[in-house]
Structure prediction request, 202 residues.
Amino acid sequence: MASKHRRRVKNFFINKNFQGKIILALFLAVAVSGLLFLVVFGLFSADTMTISYENNDLHMGNTPIMLFKKAFVANWVFLVTCATLLFGIALITTHRIAGPLFRFEKALANMVNKNLTDTIRLRGKDEGKDLAQQINLFNTSLSKDLREVNRRSQAIHDLLTQYASLSSSKLSAEEIDSICKAIKTNNDKIHGILSSYKLADD
Prediction:
């Protein structure tokens, strides 16, 4: 019996610490902006009075306080909806950043461990595609150069083995010169590849 295909559950909290900080910062920014507006509005209307008519009752009070109470009571459903919507938008946005960051950290950890086989693949709406492409190109380029260095090194090893297997008396001057030139050619190729890199100071 074929095993049932298990649908992968999408994990929106890839990096809870990072995403939590961003969401909290966004909420605080919106809340502080709203409070700042209320404070500024209150300062400009502090010396005014507002009269409201509700259930056949006439209410009178300081303008900032009256407007704040009425606005909150009338729009609490709207405020809750906006808060939920804000949380959803922040969660989706941070997910598109936290996901690539997780992939970058994993790829760089592999590179530190001298494993260049990792290829970063991001989703369609993820951020950081240019950086992912640069890391992938670096891994591909370095892998190509290291393969060439390994091939040249093996060629030098084979030439030295060939030379060692025969006594120098059995080799003509032309054969010795040919082996030496082949070793030098491979060594120059290795040197050319290595000299193309700028290395950090020890």
Notes: Helices lie at 16-44, 63-112, 129-165, 173-195. Residues 50 and 61 are 6 Å apart (CA to CA).
